[in-house]
Amino acid sequence: MLALLWVTALVLVPPAPPAAAGGKNLKSPQNVEVYIMDDNFILKWNWSNDSVRNVTFSVDYQIQKMDKWNKLPGCQYITSTKCNFSSLKLNVYEEIKLRVRAEKGNDTSSWHEVDSFIPFQKAQIGPPEVHLEAEDKAIIVNISPPGTKDSVMWAQDSLSFTYSIDFWNSSNVERRTETTVYPRYKISELSPETTYCLKVRARLRLQRKVGVYSPVYCVNTTVENKLPPPENIEIEARSQSYVLKWNYTSVNVTFQAQWLHAYIRKFPRNLSDQWKQIPGCENVKTTQCVFPQNTFPRGIYFLRVQASNGNNVSLWSEEKKFDTKLQTVIHPPVINVKSISNSLHIYIGAPKESEDKAVNYPLIYEVIFWENTSNAKQNLLEKNIFTITDLKPLTIYCVKVRACLVGEKWNKSCAFSDTLCEKTKPGNSSKTWLIAGICTALISIPVVIFAVKGLWKCIKYVFFPSFKPSGIDECFSEQPFKNLLLSTSEEQIESCFIIENTDTVAIVEETKDIDEDHKTYTSQSSQDSGNYSNEDENSEIRTSEVFEQETV
Predict the structure, then answer these.
(1) Is pLDDT at 67 greater than 70 in this prediction?
(2) Quick check: 141 and 177 in contact, CB under 8 A?
(3) Element (H or E) spanning 435, and its range?
(4) Are strands 300-309 and 288-292 parallel, antiparallel or unpaired?
(5) What 3-state class would DSSP assign to 485?
(6) Same domain flag for 438 and 537
(7) Mean per-residue pLDDT of the chain
(8) Rounded to an integer, what distance in angstroms lies between the CA atom of residue 138 and that of residue 315?
(9) Rounded (5°) CA angle 333-338-342
(10) Which domain holds residue 417?
(11) Which of 61, 132, 389, 478 could form an S-S bond across to 219 if both were Cys, CB 3.0 to 4.6 Å?
(12) 204 to 34, 125, 201, 501: CA distances (angstroms)
């Protein structure tokens, strides 16, 4: 009986299956995705085989150009279907690859590889942190750039963010959007004692990345201040000084003005201790103040003004952006005009500066010239001294020049020099004819010499024959004529030509035989150029052939 029971037990208990190898019983993770926001790196996946218990997952990574796979820290033998690998010190501009698999004891699934990616390209800009300050008619928005203080992802772009601010009042009637590149921004022209709400998002225009909106923040504007702030801040340059102006309606008040470097505003911190007093703009009783231009070296600044009356002090005005380059006054240059034949040489000196103050900006000169009896003015732009050629002889031409900043030539600070007029010299056509005649005579001398020499040989042959037999061809051998044809080229006599002055059309061209720093401009003739040359090789050959035939 016991033996029967033992046999039955053997039948009822099936043998255990052998352990599966190579992941036959475990499926690979599916729908694997990488999510990056600021400096947070997260890998997520799906696991569909819920019937298998006590499964863990592990992730490996591989850096570009490296064959070795490494274990991803924080993502080994985890039970969750996501892992955070933000602690891994990565070069966010370097390509990386990931793979994940399921595990249970000694059994593992096959790897699921994620397409390689560059973290910076995949990263999304997160919401910035926002802190609000309220005034009676304004809200000051303080924005912290996305990411942490020691952000790796945006380390090179923290000063390049542009911020969009969407705001509205409590009744949702007054709704608008404003944009700024500064992390501290003032929204003005609001109503006192009113609730305003806003949200902010950052973007990187160059990389075409648009961030996620921050949460909504709300604040109440304060009670209206007794003294309003100054308005309509303006600045202009006069000689060696700047004049700062503003509007104000109240009387018996004094003003003060301060300045701040524009680049400092790019840093997200409290800048109240960075503002500096403008010399000459303290306790001013008028709505303007004057200070020297050397107060501000070349650069971009912000200015602000505040009013006070005893213990009552207004809020600061809106901050006025001030670029010294755009306010630079370029004084009229010194010019000198000299007539040489039918040309005018324009000499341009440095712009007049009182107290010999040098101009440290690149300049371009605009030159306008015209006939004294004509209203048709011609315009040239040049950086150096230059010459205007082919003008009418014995004609008065007038010239004026102004110096402007390169790229800002129509700036209102450009001013023309005094107009100078000069009469061109008489034309030099008689001299040209004389030179041409001399050159022609010089070229003709070798022709006459070779002709006489050939004629003399013929005379000797007819009247004084030699005892040595010879053919008549000796009189007109090819060699003299070859020499005749070659003589002009061998002597390398310069080409002579005649130029007749005619009525000119205002077309400016540049002469090639002058150096790069000295430009020549010419008025091109509208008729035939009148240029004639006596070096026509074909003509000389035909002349020699006729001469030979007639002699024979």
Answers:
(1) yes
(2) no
(3) helix 429-463
(4) unpaired
(5) helix
(6) yes
(7) 75
(8) 10
(9) 130
(10) 333-423
(11) 132
(12) 21, 9, 11, 63
